[in-house]
Amino acid sequence: MTLPSIAPYVIVGAGIHGLSTAYHLARELRSRGFGAGEDIVVLEKTEPGAGASGIACGVVRNNYFQPAMSELMQACVEVWESDPVAYHYNSVGYIALGPDVQESDLVATHERQERIGYRSTLITGEREVDAHMKELFPDWRAKGVTACLHEHQGGFAFNRDSVLGLLGKAEAEGVRVLTGVTVTGFDIRGDGSVGAVVTDAGRIAVGEQVVVAPGPWAKGLWRALELPDHIDVRTPSGEVAEDRPMWTYWNLQEGEIVVDPSSFATADGGAPPVIHLDTDAPLRSDDGALVTDELWGIYFKRDRHGVQGGAAPLEVDGDVELDPYPSTTDVDPAFPDMWCAALSHAMSRFEGCRASYRRARSGGVGAFTVDNFPVFDYMRPNVYT
Q1: Same-domain status, 75 and 14
Q2: Do 85 and 212 reside in the same domain of the chain?
Q3: How far apart are CA 122 and CA 111, in angstroms?
Q4: pLDDT of 231-272, one tens digit each?
Q5: First to last CA, the chain
Q6: What angle do CA 298, 309, 107 make, to 5 degrees?
């Protein structure tokens, strides 16, 4: 497809965020009589879902402490639920389990979910939580858990398939998705707006707006927009944290065990919810060796070829080489032992699962903002991120 000389709307990145923006913008333009999908061009340097969207674990949840994030995720879950077939979405629910030190946070999260009408159940007390989990999984044996927030909405989507589902919806609206086109810069006008997007295939004049949705490549495009690498952060109390890096990189730690997927099912044979387990109980391997006696956590879900999940990400010092993504980074060498020991700690069915662990890049490097929350706002008069 030929690069157009001008487009009213230019979106950078064909991952989940870029394609979702293209699809929903096309629908809004058409419904309001302001235009159509043909007014939108998406630029992707490789192929749709080539970044984090195509390899991530695909968990959909609403376990967020901040009210704004809870409301945002409720809206996102509603989109997933609107067409589970096209999005390859599995509405199996999501369970967050935590020890005493996290109980108040889970209680507060449940209260917010109740206020916004997001369906969930809160269970507190170690015996009560254990009983709830054993109803679902009779071999449940995790220790040190005093709170359980069981979201009856949420679940997971198959990563690349969901990207392709969004791609199909966007293209059906007339959106043009151009692959093999790398954005190299922006022509910035005197008023601070972007007049053109510069690529390795030529320039595209911008008629209306630019949306930047590059995933891990955010830092480079941030610089191309001539935005600051460091900022001052002001807290609600009035304190100022000066000269903090706008972007840092975290390496997501995810892996999988190759087992019969049906071996991870609920007591009635149903599809299991996604599970996030945090506890301060000592973690030991199957042979009794101590892995850690500090607070630890994992998440896991059933996948097409076994069980997939992860643990806490690793913060990366300085810049990282992102391409070819995601092969430039890896998990901590101790991650496979820790994650498999944690699976066994949770359920006896996972005893000995370390032998079934497969090194699979289901998590890569992510770019995080200064406060680790996403930015949805105008960074220039006509540039939305």
Answers
A1: no
A2: no
A3: 9
A4: 999 988 999 999 999 999 999 899 999 999 999 999 999 999
A5: 25
A6: 45
Same domain, 323 and 283: yes
> What distances in angstroms separate CA 37 from CA 14, 19, 22, 164, one per listed residue?
15, 12, 8, 17
Quote the number of domains for the chain.
2
Which one is predicted more confidently, 68 or 99? Answer: 99
Q: Is the peptide bond before 4 cis (omega within 30 degrees of 0)?
A: no
Q: Pairing state of beta strands 202-212 and 94-98?
A: unpaired
Q: What is the CATH number of the domain that holds 96?
A: 3.30.9.10
* Dist CA 142 CA 344 (whole Å): 9
Give the structural domain span for 92: 68-156+248-369
Quick check: is 10 in a domain?
A: yes
Q: Which amino acid is at 75?
A: A
Identify the DSSP state of 225: T
Tokens 């009589």, located at residue:
33
CA–CA gap between residue 91 and residue 330 (Å, rounded): 30
Domain-located, residue 79: yes
Q: Do the bridges between strand 357-358 and strand 290-292 make them parallel or antiparallel, or are there none, so unpaired?
A: unpaired
Residues 311 and 295 grouped into a single domain: yes
